[in-house]
Amino acid sequence: MTANTMTAPLAKPGADEGRIGLRANLRHIGALVRRNALQIKHDPESMFDVLLMPVIFILLFTYVFGGAIAGKGNQPEYIQRLVPGMMAMMGMNIAMAVGMGVNEDFRKGVMDRFRTMPIARSSVLIAKIVVEIGRMLIATAILLGMGFLLGLEIRGTIPEFLGAIVLSTAFGAALMWIFILLGLTVRTPQAVQGMAMVVLMPLQFGSSIFAPPTSMPGWLEGFTQVNPVSNLADAARALINGQGAVAHPTLVTLGWAVAITAVTMPLAVSKFRKKT
After folding, report:
1. Is residue 37 included in any domain, yes or no?
2. What rounded mean pLDDT belongs to the chain?
3. Is the pLDDT of residue 276 over 80?
4. CA dihedral defined by 81, 87, 90, 91, rounded to 10 degrees?
5. In the chain, at which end, N or C, are there fewer CB atoms within 10 A of the end residue's CB?
6. Helix and strand numbers, DSSP H then E, in the chain
């Protein structure tokens, strides 16, 4: 056989992904994204959290707690505070679902099949992130749609409004790596959910999403000010309302997103390779 008729051998299962080119990596990610999207198509119930959670939460906090927090009759103005903050909350809850999904895929043996294929190990996890970002954007769109029905106004510019969506999505995508790592570490999806709630509840309710920090006790106000979720909520609120400090909370949020991704993404990929 001549050199011209020889073909390059396929990469061995478990090959070092450093040998897989960028084009092949992107092709693997695209194929896996399609697989995950088809899985949602065949299991539409998996979209219930994305479709119903934004509606339930915005109605609950507006009409049950809005009067107590903002004062009776001030719900329309409270909407301007609540909806931008809840954009951060959507990303956190969907990030938790990613960890549960990865854990369940391992329990079913799906991930073991992927690890025997000649594909980059990171492509499996990145494809998960891409699909969940799509779910997050759908949840955000429903949240904003409900907000507009309840009186939300875009008081800033359209680019600022889109910037708030991008910022929330970037932070939510970074959190997904934490929960993927958690899903690869603990044994059951229930354990992922339980540990995630222990972390998420203080971050969500000990933040500026629902109430101004000045109304809280001193120790809680201090925690709220350093809480990255507060920075995201404040940045999104300033961008949508067209007032308030934007640069500082935006830079802090982006810094957290980059730092979280830089630390947890390599750990998650390494854990994925080694998990038995």
Report:
1. yes
2. 85
3. no
4. -140
5. C
6. 11, 0
DSSP state of 9: P
Expressed in percent and rounded to 5, the helix, strand and coil fractions of the chain are: 80, 0, 20
9 in any annotated domain: no
Contact predicate 183/101, CB 8 Å: yes
Residue of 186, 179, 165, 166 lying closest to 93 (CA atoms): 179
Q: Looking at the predicted structure, is the pLDDT value of residue 275 above 80? A: no
Given a contact cutoff of 8 angstroms between Cβ atoms, the answer to whether 227 and 207 are in contact is yes
128-177 pLDDT tens trace = 999 999 999 999 999 999 999 999 999 999 999 999 999 999 999 999 99
- For residue 126, is it within any domain? yes
CA dihedral 105, 260, 96, 186 (to 10 degrees): 50
Cα 70 from Cα 77, distance rounded (Å): 8
Q: How many domains does the chain have?
A: 1
Report if residue 217 sits inside a domain.
yes
Check residue 47 and report its DSSP letter. Answer: G
Residue 250, both tokens: 């935006």
16-50 per-position pLDDT tens digit: 455 677 777 888 888 889 888 888 888 888 788 88
Pick from 34, 221, 216, 66: nearest CA to 130: 34
